[in-house]
Cupin domain-containing protein
Amino acid sequence: MYCQLNKNDEGIPAHFHSFGEDSAIVLQGELTYDVSFEQQLKAVENDIVFGWINYVHGYHNSSLTALHILIFATPEHNESIYDPAYLPKGEYPSIRLAKMTSDMMKITSERMIFSTKQRNIAQHNMMIFDWYKKELQIMEHHDQPASIQPNSIVIQFKDNANM
């Protein structure tokens, strides 16, 4: 989902996903990212923020210029029941902010994988985002194997069978 938030916009208020997740790439501008009512992070172009399962988070623009973000969400079974005892099971639940670079480590959560490592197969649940060109390519089953460029990140939604 693409969003543009101007300074006077309400933004995306604090919310959580009890079973799903969302993460956002800053395309342009400065994002103020609220995390669990405990901290605010500033993210700029080519930063990615992570909204893990059951963590309260929100998106706001505090600068004068428009904020452009690309949000990747897995809101399956998103019930409105907040259970602070249920924390993410992914490998990197403490990571909230990362800079996209060609040597960015693979970051996985319960539902998503972000990696600059090359993939040699096209899958229906895979996208490639070129942060230099600001282009998103959605892979289909019939697509040829992808060649990941140094300025691209693979975003993959995990299948229910793999969770």
In short: The CA atoms of residues 95 and 125 lie 23 Å apart. The chain has a mean pLDDT of 79.
